[in-house]
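Supplementary Methods S3. Input chains for the assembly prediction are listed below.
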Amino acid sequence: MDWLALTLSLQLALATMLVLLPIGVWAGRRLAWRRFRGKVLVEALLALPLVLPPTVLGFYLLVGMGGASLLGQWYESVFGQQLTFSFQGLLVASVIFNLPFAIQPMQRAFEAIAPEVREAALCCGMSPLRMLRRIELPLAWPGIVSALVLTFAHTLGEFGVVLMVGGSIPGQTQTIAIAIYDRVQAFDTASAGLMSAVLLLISLATIGLSYFATSRIGLSRRG
Amino acid sequence: MLDAELACGRGEVLALVGPSGSGKSTLLRCIAGLHTPAGGRIECGGETWLDTVSGKNLSTARRRIGMVFQNYALFPHLSALENVLEGMDDTGSAEALERAQRLLRKVHLDGLEQRRPHELSGGQQQRVAVARALAREPHVLLLDEPFSAVDRATREKLYGELAELRRDLDMPVILVTHDLEEAVMLADRMTILSRGRSLQSGPPLEVMQRPATVDVARLVGLRNVFEGEVVSHSRDDGHTVLAWNGRQLRVRLQIAFAVGSRVAWSLPGAGVLLMPRHRPPSGNLDHPLEGSVAKLVTLGDRVRILARVDGSGGALLAMTVPRHLAERYALVEGQPLSLRLRGEQIHLMAADARDRVLASA
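Predicted structure tokens for the full assembly:
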């Protein structure tokens, strides 16, 4: 059991989730309620990680963040180390490939709020902040939780992109999914089996918990 | 496309009436600030809310409005009391709580404060919506077809409650409805809208009895609309003579229309009477006519008749009689009828610029 890999995976998943929470809420709201030119293109772009082969995504991320890129060079000049093949690079990649998992459920949740309810909130003189806090978030909460859980679970399981962008550096970028692959290549099925089971249980527990929580919220609203 | 103008005073109820698509809800939303028109001006209590010329456009939250939506738009996750509290400025104070409870009592909802919207009936939800709108202490109360989503019995009850409530309201109240009867019951003034244009404003009964144009006549449900020509005015005798399909009708004096001009004229269904034969006329502007039943439709306890007037080129007069009367005269299609037109109720309007106007079935 590679505890280091597991810890790394959990850290990556947690960090991604935290970064995507504000981004998802902001983007989810805007996409739910605004109409603008090119909206369809934006939605399509955001959905790309759902359909692109992970290696393609990984390749483009590598090119975009690597030593030869503007971003990579800027990062190296500021932090003194390469962005690719580091935990930070994995985080950037993880945020990007989880965008649809975070944004789409949040967008649906905000869309589900009847426009008249928001208009009524405006008629009550609510400021945008109060409206967000008092009306929008409480009503969209189940969707937001789903999005976060999906992001967490998906990050735990991501393989292709992580391998390409992070390499497989133990302690730095060797997540548990990669460690399992590594162990299988080395014919260490016992280790691989144990880690797979642990990952399976964690994923199941996470998703189960979120379904349970959202069904409770749904129940309490219906009384 | 909206091209409308309206005004409403304190404590006055103005009904915006028109068919679907006439722009009445859009107009209301413009007042609320939920929709910005391409050009216009909105003023309330001396404060300019919108002026496209100067670029001023106050946001909805800054305008002090109370709005009741067609489907109430209550906050589904909050109780009735919390819904009403959200309408207030100082939501957290004990004073606000007391005011909210008083408002709920006023709309006959005491005991139901803790219920969520899904635990309330349609009529109760509507009352919460009204209380929430009033909690804002608005400068204008806007009601967007507030009764259309409830059943008849509840609606009748709510009419009574609104009529009672409005006595205590000293703000302008604007009510959007497609139901003329509602406007007659609840409003002091009415503006008729059609296809985005405001056609006529005035007290409801006046608009219905004295429509300004043929369009308005149709919109208020007048089915007898015809064309004629003004023959003469007689001020001494208090009548105008109208030529219609070879007949001369003496109608209420309306000197605004020049002698010889073509006019349109309307007559409410109540102005056409079924008379037993050979009964002498009672009023001095009554006109006896002979005709026959062209079409007969029984609707519950009333019978709608379309009568073809003899010798008038096929003109059809619409009238309604109680069922027992129709049965007494054993009315059937084709049967000859003796009718009386009440000239007193004939109202003249400018001739329709379009093709000949015939009575609609």
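Chain B has nine helices and 19 strands. The CA atoms of residues 204 and 298 of chain B lie 28 Å apart.
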